[in-house]
Each structure stands twice: as structure tokens, then as C-alpha cells.
User: What shape does this take?
Amino acid sequence: MKKNERERVFAVKSRLCFEKNIRAFEKYYPDIAKTIKEYTPDDDFEILVTSSGAGNFIPKRIGVPIYSDDPLQQTRLQLEKNTSKGYYSLTKYGFGVSSKDMRIHSRYMAKLDNKIKSVADTNPEPLAALPTHFPTAMIFGVGLGYVITELLSKHTFDYIFITEPDLEIFYASLFCTDWAGVIEKVDSAGNTLFLQIGLDLNEFFSSVYQISMDIGAYSLIRAFCYQHYPSEEVNQQIAEFFNRYYEIQAGYGFYNDAITGLAHCLMNYKSKAEFFTLPSVRKHIDMPVVVVGNGPSLDDGAEVLREIQNDVIIFAAGTALGSLAKHGIKADFHVLVERPKSTYDALLDSFDPSYYADLNLLAVDVMYPDVIDMYKWAGLALKGPEASTVFTQFLLLADEKKLIPSLPYSGPLVANTALSYAMSMGFNEIYLFGVDNGYLGDKTHSANSIYASNENYKKIIDKGAIYKLKGNLTQDVMSTNLLKLAHKFIESLLRMDKKVFVYNVGEGAFIKGALPVKEEDVFISKRPVKKADIIEQVKQKFFVKHQFNVTPERLGFDQFDELCDFLNAIANEPYETRQQASDLLKRQARCVYAYRSSHHSHLFHIIKGSLLYFHSPMLTVLYQYQDDKLSLDSFTELLAIWRDYVDEMKRDYRLSWYKKCDWGMDMEFLTAG
Assistant: This one.
């Protein structure tokens, strides 16, 4: 066929293809359809017709054609090479659960751990070629879409993530690829396609992260990862995905955490504690706040804090309270976040109880109840997303017709809680002292910290600081998983309100959105208002008492029994292939996630974390090794452990919904190391 004829045929087919695709996007992805309709290509936008009759394209940002003269054949050969020896995301599991930890979750995690280790110890041959079915595909850079139709002609996936950072390229693909057919094929198979189109780095990962929260982190745990074409933007997205992959696997929660959190919350509503709410009109408060963490840089800032303490409101995060006291500095609010009894024990290890009787407490709803009475005044916020939070939000909406907010980005660490409180209250000038989010050399905490002076507390310091974070002033810091996540969540919180001025004082990790400041450059201007008056205004304006009625029906005992029974009914169904086995997990997960929007959404949060802790390694083992029989036999043994765990959660919920946590510092010390 001559060139002119090829171009004429392509012009007709491509226009029909584009129109068909637009209709499909309007039906399935209306936001993307809207973006496409609003997009205006440049005047020189042109799809080149190759001698093979397929379209090719020269992106503005790249300057050369994406393909050779035969795009389809090039794509086939590329796929054959990359599917014959695939690149897969892989998490190496090793939970290191102490045999002395007798909590329900820990006992079953120990069994899971031992089984996974016993399989790995046989050194089975790892999976190489991409199987006909695989849990997830992660496609970076879709080009003109040929790779998708070719891949799906030979393979199926439960979840397909496609990212194309260049909107111009994706727009061109609509003329070349039958996206409508792709979408309908995936949908008819009961699988799911996620499209991240034209997103910058932060938008891209935020989208992927939110999807993992909405449908479960297991959806990304075992993924066939594939880069279709090279570009700087695609390379950056790949790096962003793998650099932040740990975030997807963090913060699952687990059954014991959820059930004690619910119990503590319900007890705390009956205590003297008042609960955080937002007024109808929130105004910025013209009084500086200092959030004090217990990082090594606090030592260099102590002198400045002593000088300014009468002109600022001090939020002491966790054990920073003790470090401040040794410098003669008294906090205005002590902030706590951890729910176990160990929090209460640590308070007793730090001071005589009389010290707290003159302090204000800011904490979260899941706080260990005995902590509340130690303080002069206590204010609690809903932590979210937690079983306790959604349960009480539902009851307060039903009984008081009030919608109570949860505290944004209030974890994972107590400095996150303190900063979230300060911003939510409307303070618009905030200084961070000792919020280092990492270790400075061999220093993990302030030299005046209990972690420096108490041998038992030294044992429980997380030694796994493997991530380097850019320094705030002169020194980079080394960060643990938890500290790195805390750092990322601080940056996310700061993006929520650009009108708040946050100053990051001293060494530690650089925080995007906060201004780096040396200690000697901190200057606090005198305010006409009295600090004591602002503290009382905050307590009166933002905190109220609530009452609601808790019944067995509202707690959903029968519904939880039904959920657990249904999960195990699914687990008892026969399977002969990896795909059939993974389908069982998918059905279990969809059943649990269906409760998220129900009247008993707290049941979702009670079981969700434990489900993710099991499903993720089960799916990994199922698709980690070449040997089908080994994979299925190992999966069967793990599934039996999971069934037993579900049964025990079912029995325990009715017994433990109003029991305090008994995990104290004695157990922290006993199981350390």
C-alpha cells in the first residue's frame, strides 16, 4: 500500500478509534474524558503513519519517535523479552515476632513467619517468566498503547496500574489503540484498571497510595513492573514508586490494636476528657506555638527555648517533656499518641505522678484510659482511620446530629500529633524544635532523654536507620521506616494550609514547606495577649463533652460473627491453580472492604489490618516461586493459619471490646531485640 493510501486509511480508522475511546472514557472514567476534551494539542500535533500502517509519534519532551518503523512488532519483541524474565515487586517478609508476645495477632504472625521462613530455607527456584495470570501489572509509560493490547492478549491481572506522565502522548494513543476494548475486557473479567494520566510526581504517588488505601495494599504487593519507553518523566515516576513503596506497606494496624483502641475510646468518653471539634468559623490565632520533639537537635535549642518560653505556647511531644524539664522548661500541653499501657508506664518512669497534675494533656481517642486522670485537663481528638473513630463518629451523628472531625496526619509519631493539633487549632506561626525525623550520627534522641539515661529504654530504640534524608542545615540524617513516614506525613500536613508559617529550627531532616532556621536566628515578637488567656480560649473553643448510647446491636457482634464465618466459608472452597487461590483472597478482601461504607464500618477497621498482614505475604508466596505445587502447598498451610486467626478474632470480639490494653513497658523490655 502506498504512503498516501496508508495515511488515508489510518486517518479514517484513527478518527473512529478516537471517538469510540472518548465514549468509553465518558462511561468508565469521566474525569479523564473531561481532561481529554479540554486538552488542545499544538498546531503541529501529528501522528506519523509508518510503512506497517501503524501510528508513531514524536513527543515534544523527547524529540524522537517513540517507535521504529514497525511499532507493533517492536512492542511484541520488547514484551517477549520482558515477560520471559519479568521484573516483579517483592517484599521480603520476616516479622521477627517474639515468642514471649502472647497477643492474638502476634501469636498468629509468629506462625506465619515460621512457615514463610521454612519455605524460603529450601531455596526454591524463583519465578521467572510471567504466568498467564498474575496479581498486578504496573506499567510505566504506556506510549501509544500498543503494549497494553499486546500484554492483555496473553495475560490477565486482577489489578492494572497504568501511568503516563505525558498527556500529549496519551492523547495520541487514543487515535492508535482500542482503549474502549481494553476497558471493556478488563471490566467483563471482573478485574480493575487504574489510570494515572498527566500527573506530576507527587500527584502520581498520592494517587497510587490512595488506591492502595481504598482497595488494600495487597493490590500492589506482587506486581509485574514494566517500563514501555524511556523518558526522564517516566524514570522519575519509577524511582518515586520504589523509593516510597514502603509507605504502601506501613500502618496496617492489627486486631489487638483495633480492639483495645475501641475499648479505650469508649472508656475515655466516660472520663473527664473533652473531645476536639472545629468551630463553625475558624480564625488564625496570633500566638506562636513551639512543637518540641525529642530529637538530638533539641539540645542545641534548649537555651533559646528557655528565653522564649513565656512568649510562646509549648507543645511537648511524648518523652520530650522530660528533656525540657531538665532544662527548666515547662510545657503548656503534653502531647501523647500511643495507646498501649506502656504509655502509662513510661509516664510513671519519667516523673512522680504529681508532676502531671498541673499539666494539660492533648492526646487521641485511643489513649490508655488511666492516663487521662493524671492531668489537670485532658483534650482528645479522633485519631482516624480507626475502628474507634468511625464507630464514635457514627454514634455522634446518630445521637447528637454532629459530625466530629478526625485529626489529619496525626501519626505515626507523637510529633505528628502535636503539629496536627497546632495547625487544626489555627495557630499560624509554628516552630519545630527537636523534630528531627532522623538520627544525627550516633545520636538518636536528646542527651537529656530517658532513652539516654535509662538502660531499659535504650534497648527499645529502633536501630534500623537505613534511609538518608537531606539535612535541614548542615548534616544529613539517617532515618528509620517510621521516622521517614512521619517526615512524609509532616510534609503532607503542611501542604494542607499554605497560610501557616512553619519554621524548622536547628539540625535534623529538611522539611518541604518549613523554613530552615538556626537557633540563634529565632526571634519572637511580644504579643499584647496573655499566653494563659490563649491556652484557656483554646480549651474552651475547641473541646466539648459528648454522650452516646452503646448497645450490642451498634457494636455489631452478630454482624462480625457473620463476616468471620463468610471469610472462612470462602477459605474452605476448593482451588487447584494459583489463580483460583488468589481469587479466594480477592473475594475475602472485597467482602471486608464492603463493610467500609456500611453502618458497621468499624468492623472493617477491626479486621482490615490483620487481613492485610496475612493476605500480602500469602499472595507473595503464591507467586514467588517457579514450582506450582510448592506454591500451592505453602499457600494452603498459610490459609489454615489465617482461618484459625479469623476464628479467634470472632470469639474474642465479644469478650474484649471493653478491655484495657495490658501491653506494658515490662513486655516492651522483655521482647526487645
Q: What stands out?
A: The mean pLDDT is 94. The two ends are 73 Å apart (CA to CA).
